[in-house]
Amino acid sequence: MNAETLGAVRRFLPQIVALFAILAINTAVFPGFLDITVQNDRFYGSLIDILNRGAPVALLAIGMTLVIATKGIDLSVGAVMAICGAVAASGVAGGGSVAMAVTTALVVGVACGAWNGMLVAMLGIQPIVATLILMVAGRGIAQLITEGVILTFNNEGLAFFGSGSIFALPVPVLLWIGMGVLVAFVVRRTALGLLIEAIGVNRRAATLSGVNSHVLLITVYMISGLCAAIAGVIAAADIRGADANNAGLWLELDAILAVVIGGTSLLGGRFTLLGSLIGAMIIQSINTGILSSGFPPEFNLIIKAVIILLILVIQSPALRTFVVFWRGPKEEVFDKEQSAP
Amino acid sequence: MSSEPMLRVENLTKRFPGALALDAVDFSLKAGEVHALLGENGAGKSTLIKCLTGAYRRDSGEIVLDGQPVDPRDTFDAQKLGIGTVYQEVNLLPNLTVAENLFMGRQPLRFGMVDTRSMNRDARQMLAQYGLEIDVARELSAYSVAVQQIVAIARAVDLSGKVLILDEPTASLDAHEVRMVFDIVRSLREKGLGIIFITHFLDQVFEISDRLTVLRNGRLVGTRAIAETERLDLVTMMLGHELSQETREHAAERGGKPETRFRFRGFGRARSIAPFDLDIGRGEVVGMAGLLGSGRTETAEVIFGIRPHDSGSAEMDGAPLALTSPRKAIAAGIGFCPEDRKTDGIVGDLSVRENIILALQARRGWARPLSAREQNTLADRFIKALDIRTSDREKPIKLLSGGNQQKAILARWLATEPQLLILDEPTRGIDVGAHAEIIRLIEDLCAEGMSLLVISSELEELVAYARRIVVLRDRAHVTELGGAEIDTDSIVRAIAADAGTEIGT
Ligand SMILES: Nc1ncnc2c1ncn2[C@@H]1O[C@H](COP(=O)(O)OP(=O)(O)OP(=O)(O)O)[C@@H](O)[C@H]1O
Ligand SMILES: [Mg+2]
Fold it and tell me: Is there a contact between B412 and A198 if contact means CB atoms under 8 Å apart?
């Protein structure tokens, strides 16, 4: 292991520990949990399942990370998933080609993001309000597209995005990992990451330094829209139908959680895509664990909430302050200055 | 005056990751004295204050107030002990009203509700003592840094029963306001308060303090009575060496008229600044003088496109310039170092390196990143040239001392190699040593052809390096002084002149 990976491991230690703890509990309860088998040239097993089922949240978390880094938030991603799933489904149901249907869905997703971005950047509407508009309206739009029914389709080409596999790995897994690598590469190899962080920390100072904050903000929301569109296509392909009411429902909250668990602050600025992706997998491990444990479904949400609360408390700076206080003030808590009145 | 100190600090030590900010410092404050706390940028002055008020937790050391060991946990706690503080970075709440800021945490109540009417009345009275007549029901952010600073001072004065701490309170005030603040400080001294006063203006030290303490690199250099201290000694105590005395040639007497590079005609914006004509020559330094609110910052903001102009035109070397946004201004080779470094300057969580390269990177666009090596070279070059005191270039800029943040913002603009650099109170919070360095650096750049427009409340500073001085009043350019006319007296006269006696532009 070189120094860089070692640094990354140290940085994400709480997340990695949390992830392994949850997997360990799962393994203790279900002995076969870690088994991975190969059938029909494809890997099967609970771990693969987690990677696969976690795809939508992981994809949403990628876009959400960038949005949050600008001190924004995108509540509309769940609804955008529903819209784009509906667009793709109606495309093939109407006899169009898969390529055409998917492309249209992606373009629509990007357009949704552009809309959000313009409200935030040009009109100066607070992101939470600006994206709430599409969150509410989006499901209506999706219903208009599906004409109020679950729009099913029988197209193997589109279904491939949900259940197909390449190199023995499910396509959704490849999609979220690919998208994560692509976005991370673009953001870190260009100056985009720095400029996004600058906007998130102090938008006024960044703008006065010549950072084109309007264009960057819109771009970031467009990337979020694109990620939501891919997630929407996967969700529709998975059930071979577009469900305007339930596709992506509440997933914006899971995505935000994934970002926060991953270590990106909701106050904007420094962000980590890798952390968010680990966060998404933590959430999915919890979901899978609870589901396969056979607890009555009404417990699921409560257990999930408790586990997430635990993770967040362990990470919270307040707890760190407390520990420091306990062991004596060895380490500086930098935020103290800002919290003084 | 009793000789037993009211506040005693012994062996105070404070360590930050990568920096020992205070190393066993002793300090004492008597009742009824003004005690100046001095030192270079990053010497540890603000840290000492913050340890005293509990904003920082000290590593070791003893604080004794009125014979009792005390350990305030936070600023509120310190206030309860009778210690009122104005921090270097004004930390009031910009989206509350002026009156709410003054009475935060102790609003007058009536039938269990905040009695806004009497609160506003009290607030108006409080500010009137400082000669400030403003609408106290407006949000604080609507006012300039100077006004905010006075509000912070008024609040701290009102809260301090025993000790008043002022960390560079006068940095953006002009002579008149400084006098008002000093009058209040003197009356508090008569009442027996102890006052700790941090500043980089040595004149103010000699004017108002009784004793002084100098810190250098986190260590105590010494405490002296003012009456026994010579100015030169003091500078040597602060810097650890003598300030190299240079006989500067009076800027205004330098050579013939430079060729005009920037030409503004009828440039202005309704309700911000009346249309003005302004020429700036190649390598020329033009100063702007005027009272608080006279339109100096507005002039800068209109030129830089922060408030786009709605009349007139601008040219550079005869070609028209579109200065409708900061980006366009930067593309045209203009840079602007704003007055309020906390809200308009630093990007706090980012490193010193990232802050220095930000403007240059933004101009290149996101797709053409500066390589890691270029960034490091650039950052190291300016950290050295401007003597920015930081443990390393990756330190978040918000952890630097105030003066060093200021230098880093200046570096951000110098890195873009601008044709015209606008500086709004450039030496705010910068120590005497660095001050001389920075002025020398700027003069070198001007010799290479950079033009400079400087706003400063420090008239001596303007006199020292401006070739011409534009005087502003009531949001209009009223007079221009040049050549032999430039000296502090004539500037003061021009600022104070009645509208009738204008010389005209
Ligand atoms: N929270 C912090 N974390 C790490 N280092 C810090 C922190 N606060 C201050 N420092 C370091 O401690 C040193 C002293 O800083 P301090 O702010 O006390 O200087 P100062 O004397 O007030 O300078 P100035 O005149 O520029 O305001 C500096 O080197 C600074 O970088
Ligand atoms: Mg300071």
Answer: no
Domains and CATH numbers, chain B: 7-95+139-229 (3.40.50.300), 243-333+418-499 (3.40.50.300), 344-417 (no CATH)
Rounded to a whole number of angstroms, the distance from the CA of B363 to the nearest CA of chain A is 6
**Minimum CA distance residue for ligand 1 atom 6:** B399
**Structure tokens belonging to residue B500:** 């009738």
Closest among B277, B69, B49 to B169, alpha carbons compared: B49
Write the pLDDT tens digit of every residue in B411-436: 999 999 999 999 998 877 888 888 88
Q: Determine the atom of ligand 1 nearest the C-alpha atom of B215.
A: 21
- How far, in Å, CA of A139 to CA of A244, rounded? 6
Length of chain B: 505
| B56-92 pLDDT per residue, tens | 989 999 999 998 999 988 888 888 899 989 888 777 8
DSSP β-bridge partners for residue B396: B351
What local confidence, expressed as pLDDT, does residue A36 receive? Answer: 82
Atom of ligand 1 nearest to the CA of B39: 21
Q: Does A195 touch chain B (CB under 8 A)?
A: yes
Question: What pairing do the DSSP bridges indicate for beta strands B420-424 and B451-455?
Answer: parallel
What are the beta bridge partners of residue B39? B215
E strands, A8-103, in order: 37-39, 42-44
Quick one: angle between helices A317-327 and A297-315, nearest 10? 50
* Assembly ipTM: 0.85
CA distance A322 to chain B (A): 13
Token representation of residue A328: 């004596």
Q: What pairing do the DSSP bridges indicate for beta strands B163-167 and B83-86?
A: parallel
pLDDT at B186 over 80: yes
Q: How far is B146 from chain A (nearest CA, A)?
A: 19
pLDDT more than 90, % of chain B: 48
Ligand 1 center to B21 CA (angstroms): 7
Residue B498 — very low, low, confident or very high, per pLDDT cuts 50/70/90? low
| The CATH classification of domain A48-295, taken from the options 1.10.3470, 2.60.40, 1.10.443, 3.30.310 | 1.10.3470
Kindly report the pTM of this predicted structure. Answer: 0.86
Question: Of the bound ligands, which one is closest to the alpha carbon of residue B406?
Answer: 1
Contact B358 A194 (CB under 8 A): yes
For residue B269, report the phi and psi dihedrals to the nearest 5 degrees. -150, 130
Cα–Cα distance measured from residue B194 to residue B33, given in angstroms and rounded to the nearest whole number? 5
